[in-house]
Write a structure and sequence with these properties.
Length: 254
């Protein structure tokens, strides 16, 4: 799939993996609406990416994945500034296990469900759309249990099952919508920096051991795997794992 006519909306794109996904799409010719709840990082990333890829290729909208109306605004802003959206990336996520654990469910699970629902409504050919691809960012923590992040692991398992159920639904597939899951292990972002400090998780000493055993990927490696899920039109309902110690590989729940 050529990205020359493509327009993406990416949540949590102000930093980390979301920013890396934006960069690889821009490098391959797509236009990107960066969305993030953090306006400071969003505006900084916008000015840097606009300087390297062109003002007309990228835009930023402050947006909260816990609000469905913000997704509607993102799709209409993207359409007016960049063109009709055909790539939706539900990337925003958090890993709080303690007092704010409910935000982990609200952002990771409910945010992904809202983003998928709005994207399906825009992409489905039977609803007047032109098709598209939805990438839901889960984690290897949604496939392999760990003692540090039970809420986080459950949230990522929920994203995987939700996406797989939609990916096999003919209402999506026969209307031109692909739905894929990216399941990275550790990547070098602010989230992993917070994990090293261990404030909001259980058994931080085990998290440190896991980081040492599994290793930490540069975000660019995760972005390469992401690009494969976007551009390879044979991939629908796929789960792509990527980790520093095992590399890249598809996973089947069946
Ligand atoms: N870094 C890692 O090792 C891994 C990360 N992931 C997943 O990748 C995704 C991105 O993670 P990172 O880049 O590492 O995290 P990060 O913490 O560096 O970036 C997350 C971004 O999401 C934004 N965000 C948080 N709440 C939001 C909300 N309510 N609405 C909109 N934006 C919001 C933040 O402002 C931030 O810019 C997450 O879903 C995470 O669970 C998955 C596997 C490994
Ligand atoms: C682990 C607690 C998570 C708290 C949130 C912070 C960072 C999140 C990082 C990830 O999503 C990393 C993914 C996996 C970690 C879990 C298991 C590692 C096993 C990897 C393997 O078997 O290859």
């Amino acid at each position: 799939m050529s990205l020359a006519q493509s327009v993406a909306v990416i949540t949590g794109a102000g930093q980390g993996l979301g920013r890396a996904f934006a960069e690889i799409l821009l490098k391959n010719g797509a236009k990107v609406l960066l969305t993030d709840i953090n306006e400071t990082v969003g505006q900084k990333t916008l000015s840097e990416l606009a300087a390297s890829h062109g003002q007309d290729k990228v835009a930023f909208l402050k947006s909260d994945v816990t609000k469905e109306t913000d997704f509607q605004s993102a799709f209409s802003t993207a359409k007016s500034k960049l063109g009709a959206v055909n790539i939706m990336v539900n990337n925003a996520g958090t890993g709080n296990e303690k007092d704010a654990w409910e935000s982990t469910i609200d952002i990771n699970v409910k945010g992904t469900i809202k983003g998928t629902k709005v994207a399906l409504d825009h992409f489905r050919k039977d609803k007047g759309g032109n098709g598209g691809v939805i990438i839901n960012v889960a984690s290897i923590a949604g496939l392999n249990p760990n003692p540090c992040g039970p809420v986080y692991g459950a949230s990522k398992a929920a994203i995987i099952m939700f996406s797989q159920c939609w990916g096999m639904n003919t209402d999506a597939v026969s209307n031109g919508v692909r739905i894929n899951v990216l399941a990275p292990a550790f990547a070098e972002t602010e989230m992993v920096k917070a994990l090293r400090v261990g404030k909001e998780i259980h058994k931080p000493e085990i998290a440190t051991q896991m980081l040492d055993q599994v290793g930490v990927l540069p975000v660019e490696k995760v972005a390469e795997a992401f690009l494969e899920l976007v551009t390879d039109t044979s991939k629908n309902n796929a789960i792509l794992k990527v980790s520093a110690h095992m590399g890249k590989g598809y996973h089947s729940l069946k």
